[in-house]
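Complex record, two chains
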Amino acid sequence: MKRANILRVCILAAVLGGSELPAVAQAAAPAAVQIENDEWQNPARLRKKLAEKLVETMPGLSTRKMKEFLANEANLNLLLNRHLAWVESNSGDAYNRYREQVKRWVQEKEQQCANHRKNAENLKGSEADQARFLLGRAEADLKELKDELRRPVSIADVVKDAGSAKVVKRICGDNEWLEHIAFSGELSKPGRVMGIIASAAAKDKKLLKQRIARETATATALEYARYDWSMMDADARTDYFVRNWRADRLNTVFDSIPFWQRRIVCGWKNQHSSGTVKAFEWALRHVHLPANQYPDCCWRCGYIADNMFGDSVQTGWYAAPFYGVYDDNHFAFTQYVGGVCGGLSHFGAAAACANGVPALTAGEPGHCAYIVNVDGRWTPAYSLSWERGLHWIPWDSNWTYSALHLTTELNDEKNAEDKRLSNAFRIMAHAYEECGKADKALRCFALAAKAQPLNYPLWREYAAFLSRNKAKDAAAWEKINELLCKGVASRYAEQAGELLKQVVYGPMSQCGMPPDKLRACFTTFWKHAANMGPDRWYIEKLANQQLDYCQKASQGDAEGAAYACFRDVLAAAAAHDAYSGPIMGWGNSVAGKLGADGDKKLMKAMTEALSSGSKMTDEQRHRLLGRILLTAERSRDASTYHSIAKMIPDKAKRGDHDVPDFHPFPGKLVSEGGMVFASSTSDWDAPHTHPGLLTKKGGRIHTGKDTNAWIAVKLPRHAYISGVVFAGTNQWELIHRFRPMQIQVSDTGNDDDWHDVGEPIPDTGLYINRFDLQQQNPKALYLRVLRRGGPEFFHAHGIFVYGKPAA
Amino acid sequence: MRSPVTCSDTMKKSLLIPLCALCALFTLPLSAAHLAENHAAAQAKVGQSGYIVFIYPGDWDGSGKKLCRRLYDSKLVQQAAGDAVLLLAPIYQSGSEKQRAAAKAIMGPLGYPGSMGRISYPALVFYEKNGRQYTTVYGEELMDRTEEQVAATVRERMELKRKQDELLAKANSSSSGVEKARFLLDSARVAKLEWPGGLRNAIRNADPNDESGCMAALNFSCWPGKDESMADYLKRVDAALENKMLTPWQKQNACAAALGHLRRSIGMMAGGDLIRKYATAMQKLDPESTLGLAAPIVIRDWIKEFRYGQGWSPELLPGSTDPVRMRGDIPIKEAGNYAVSFYIVTGRDALHVASVRLLDGGKCVAADTVERMVNYSQRTQVFNLQVKRAVRKPVLEFVFKNDKDHRSTWGNIEVKKQ
């Protein structure tokens, strides 16, 4: 039976509710290679043997031939087993490190037990009670660690047990299962992965017969092996999900999530107090919600910086009185005691995972946010900034937000064939390299990139191959740079940037490429990077690294190199609205670090790029900068907005006249330092004065003739709003444009996420309008003044939001 | 405002629910609830008991849906609901337009609980006749429970609501402002129910000068004042513990505030007896609540003995000049001259020792009261004690003069016969 048909039968079975894998799917695929248990004792030899067999079987190197090759399940099985053997043979050091680490942990824990035992014997009263309590904890940990020490680590260990060996055989004969293991993300320590699956299967006889149960065990195994969490805990995590899935208690999202996202759910932080089975069971009962409510659910807990004892969350005393009560249940702790951003975000994300909905926490500057997959969309929650680093990462050493989006697209069912093809070429490349055929290997990497450029690990391996075999071949490095920029930067610029920074630029700058050629390679990125991707990213860091390499290659003329680099980068980026602003801002900061001469040169380059060579007056320049401001506003990119705003003199930011005096609302002026944007722009708009709108000097913002026109402010941080002062117009003949007005707030600024607050002003003849929100005191990051109805123009000279910063 | 949710609620329930379930089996209902298909139909039937909406996961959880349906159809639950109108409504994750419109028709103006509130589905959400939500039953009160147990929970909530309504009725018919305020306050203190709407304003209007003390009780907080002495502050806490207007939960919070203040200001050694006192009180008020559960941990982890051989540390040093006593195997038995040496090991601050006394059975038998500083230029300081007779129960008493912000210092204390 064809693979696709097997898949359909399985899906049908799952849909029908049986969830049993049909017999045909349970049977091993026609294996091209039978791996004996003994062969796993020497995975390097096995990998070589399989590489030779692959090279011998491969009919030729082209996309068409590979497709024909893959049409035979036995060939695919050979490829997948070769990959498994390759990763296993590369894991020897990691296994040894892990074994040593567990031994160390055992020793440390034994020492702790001895200390606590001594204290329990020698101390008196409450201190003896404390020592006994700590001894109990340490002994439980020691028991788990000793159990871990007895568990298999490599596949060679796993196959020593007859039952586990059968499971390994079964995995190695099942292409779909192998593909999940090999290509759903990082594969680390396959031996531990197999060991965890075998252990779960030994405890639950039905586990491997049910698709979702098997996938759950596999996903758990992949993550627990990756992060060196204990097998005992892996068994408990698998049991939790399988048991509750069978009882139909999880969110139905769990039944249909792509396998790689199942890894996020099952791989939720084992070491955190939200990751215990007790905590998960609590969340399943007390935070069981439709998926779209998880982004808000953290707010059921109070943001409490000092606990009931008056101890700050920044100290260990905050949780100390509850040590032994809630330290294995973060949810109960956060709900009953409290927490700040970290506690709240862990509450939200872990609750989603405990219910089967993919979610993860993410670090932001001085803050912790979280991200939930709602209806297939990655939705940031309690997020204050685009500067977020993921706490669960699809690919090692890559904490960027858009990695989630790239991986989503890569694993989309519609890309399954391309992904398989790309991985097949990737495996063939390693096989050719092992057999001494480097040129064929290089061709395979190029074909793999062509088949599916979003195949993230491919690029790391491609670059590593070049470093091993073509370190001084400038053309080869130029080609990988070109392929990566073309294939990835055009869709996921941030991801291309990460790969370039991590694996390409370093060796490329060492391959002997002349400085202008190197610069041209850097510029290639900006030519292809047309879109920002899902959010703003660290554009300046990439540009800085390019600048750094240019300056190193310039052999002394740092200012000249900076000028040339900036000129070329800006010229390439200027074509794309998304990047022209950030690159201008970056140039401005680079100029600040250069001498007066360098600064002038950079400003000249900037003006040239802006004006396409023609001379400009100051006013023209401000208007051009205003256009860039509009782009930043459209993408809600506050960083760029502020860096461009800095380039406009304060005098030029002013509107036609100052805003008259008014009575403020209680609290601080929380809109200060925010960003203004509107439903649209028009010829009467003066974008370069938008930053002035949040100051007493005033500015001017003017929409087009819109239905439901609005003018919004993104506050610098969340705030509880006490009131808004809105300076509309002092021209009586235009007053009809301001009827009626309503304040709305939002946490995301998304079009579908605005909520009315306070009373509308149905009719106004006033220049200064006051919206009193003290009754509701709403919490928001975004606020807008909506002019309902229309189509009509809407404009303002000033917006002043008062309140109290939320966190 | 929601009444505080504590662990004790859960634990009390575990006792209460089987009892109520038993009662439910033997008690004939006065009336049975009305079932309605949608809000429009419910509105025609609704009486004083309002609505109970059984909200189930529409398209995202099979077991919750079945559970909710089963409870909705349960005669026991219906009887427990009195004459409330019962509605069965889905909450969708990605329902179609048609499904959502149908759900909206069932709910009518009764809003779903907000996504930021404490809720989990399936849930039984109780609304007053006017549509105001006053309590919810969800989580462990529904999951893995029998119909009898859920019926008992419903009956309990209806009973509590009746009690709250009675208190409000008494408040409304009361001619005295003070009495009215007290009834209003009592209505807010009915467990597991939301406060009646506009409660604060109602109390303020009834008793503008707060002669009843109700506003003070509502606004109660027991944090130490900036310049308040420890003695004055603890008097305030003790008074709060005797105040009948305060709930056990408020008193527990007063204890917790005092415990934190004691630990930070006096230290875990000098504050030991007081820490034990307030932690014990906190536990007694409600042993199964969050703070009740924390109390034994505070006693276990926050009380330190000062024993010979352990030296000093910031945790042990008092933040005041109250004398502290070192016990343990102090090597002073016979008469003679003894040197008590302080060695600084690390820390940011010097140790300021005002006096060293030797006590025997509580009586001072030797002393050195010349103040000395142990710091980095003078790493060791020796206090001399002339002991004129044999000592049976030696205890060293020290007076330190480090204030609470200058206790970053660690060191050893050694006693040697000269």
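Note: The longest strand of chain B covers residues 336-347.
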